[in-house]
Amino acid sequence: xxRVAVGSTNPVKVRATERVADELFEADVTGVAVDSGVSExxxxxxxxxxxxxxxxxxxxxxxxxxxxGVGIEGGVADLDDRPGLYLIMWAAVSDGERxxxxxxxxxxxxxxxxxxxxxxxxxxxxxxDLLDTEGLKERAGAAGVxxxxxxxxxxxxxxxxxxxxxxxxxxxx
Length: 173
Description:
Number of strands: 5
Strand order of the largest sheet: 2-1-3-4-5
Shape: globular
Structural class: alpha/beta
Strand content: 15-25%
Distance between the termini: 23 Å
Largest sheet: 5 strands, mixed
Order of helices and strands: EHEHEEEHHHH
CATH architecture: Alpha-Beta Complex
Radius of gyration: 16 Å
Number of helices: 6
């Protein structure tokens, strides 16, 4: 059985990793609290990917018995010259020697939400405020709300984690 440490105790991130790891091998997945090393609301692809990479490396440091460390980070980014601000999701997987990355779902944020994010607020609390909820990011997340339930945060993150695990799971790399 492979041990996998996720650089977060957020149950959505842990479950997304469990779903991928269980498809690839028999896994024991544990969430560990680590600092992402980036802002609370990462902005831009580079900062979001760096947060995922930091979480993966720090998860292995916090759980040295793990074969893999997984980092998952959600951020917001402009899409070159396209209108709007987009929610982006990135994951990183490390075995202590190699570090791989994978991207997940991206979706445009409503203009009023984007304006609040651009003024310095974090996406989760903004949506909680607008929807009169609490802890949305540990349940359906923005992906669930903004797709009217077609996907949720966990299923969106599964794709990022699977893409980051891909180079470890196949001989094509």
